From TrEMBL:
Residues 1-26 are annotated as: Disordered. PANTHER family: IRON(3+)-HYDROXAMATE IMPORT ATP-BINDING PROTEIN FHUC. Gene3D superfamilies: P-loop containing nucleotide triphosphate hydrolases. It is found in: Cell membrane. CDD domains: ABC_Iron-Siderophores_B12_Hemin. One of its GO terms (molecular function) is ATP hydrolysis activity. It comes from Corynebacterium macclintockiae. GO terms for biological process: iron ion transport. It holds the Pfam family ABC_tran. This is ABC transporter ATP-binding protein. InterPro entries: AAA+_ATPase, ABC_transporter-like_ATP-bd, ABC_transporter-like_CS, P-loop_NTPase, Siderophore_ABC-ATPase.
Length: 291
């Protein structure tokens, strides 16, 4: 997947990893100079990044670099120590969570549901941001549930329990729940966790289809770099709580970046199928083993 904006950021610094260029105020999601932590521990420091509207942007980086923390902070689930997050030009920093949930839908890592819950009931929970004591369940809500199940090709699962489903079916149903929020923006935290390669591709094909067909903005976290390259318009590469590089995969994925960000020796070639970068990890030398 390719696009011309925003411009790639691959700046380097001798002593610390660089921040992305200061983002412009535009539609989509814009994080500006945010710092986030847990207690006394700072996870993200003075980070800025832009996630453009109508595109798929994937956050990648080594374990513990702050990917999921960034997603939680931008969704309002974690308080910011400093900085702002704007969603479609609205500053969500001081918003209540229910207000934020009308702007963006969030699918966390490994979501859980009560045992025996029907698929239709789970998906209906996505309508919570639109409920109030004076506004009860309506035909609009019912239609949103049916539409979401149809968009993910899960309508035939509506009367089954979540426990009966395969991993791929469950993930489609969880995505349906997020879709019923009827937001322009979807945050997906590792949507392929615990899925085999074929099912992971199936889920990412669904995400790509939703983005293109429904015009959704998608921000997700992935661990598999080649899948991230294949299914993303843009990448945000993180390390140690900061942005090391951002831009389209073809603009920023190089052997040098992989070495710096992931401590990974790899060869980057052109994918003969798509023309995207294809990452081939190199074996570590065994010349230093003891006799």
């Amino acid at each position: 997947m390719t696009s011309s904006t925003p411009q790639p950021n691959t700046a380097q610094h001798n002593t610390a990893l660089p921040n992305a260029a200061q983002p412009s105020d535009t539609s989509g999601v814009v994080a500006s100079s945010i710092t986030v932590g847990y207690g006394e521990r700072t996870i993200i420091r003075d980070l800025s990044a832009t996630f453009p509207a109508g595109k798929i942007t994937t956050i990648v980086g080594p374990n513990g670099c702050g990917k999921s923390t960034l997603l939680r902070a931008m969704s309002g689930l974690l308080d910011l120590n400093t900085g702002t997050v704007r969603v479609n030009n609205q500053d969500i920093t001081a918003m209540k969570r229910k207000e934020v949930a009308r702007l963006l839908g969030v699918l966390p890592q490994s979501p859980v549901a009560p045992e025996g819950l029907l698929v239709s009931d789970l998906v209906a929970r996505g309508r919570h941001p639109h409920q109030a004591w004076f506004r009860q369940w309506s035909s609009t809500d019912e239609g949103a549930v049916l539409e979401a199940l149809e968009q993910t090709d899960s309508k035939d699962l509506a009367n089954r329990t979540l426990d009966e489903l395969s991993g791929g079916q469950r993930q489609r149903v969880w995505i349906s729940m997020v879709l019923t929020q009827n937001t322009d923006i979807l945050f997906l935290d590792e949507p392929t966790t615990y899925l085999d390669l074929a099912t992971s591709v199936d889920i990412l094909e669904l995400v790509e289809d939703l983005c293109q067909r429904l015009g959704r903005t998608v921000v997700m976290v992935l661990h598999d770099l080649n899948l991230a390259v294949r299914y993303s318009d843009y990448l945000v590469v993180m390390n140690e709580g900061q942005v090391m590089a951002s831009g389209s995969p073809s603009e920023i994925i190089t052997a040098e970046l992989l070495q710096r960000a992931f401590d990974l020796r790899a060869r980057v070639i052109e994918d003969p199928e798509t023309g995207d970068p294809l990452i081939i990890p190199l074996k570590k030398s065994r010349n230093n083993t003891l006799d």
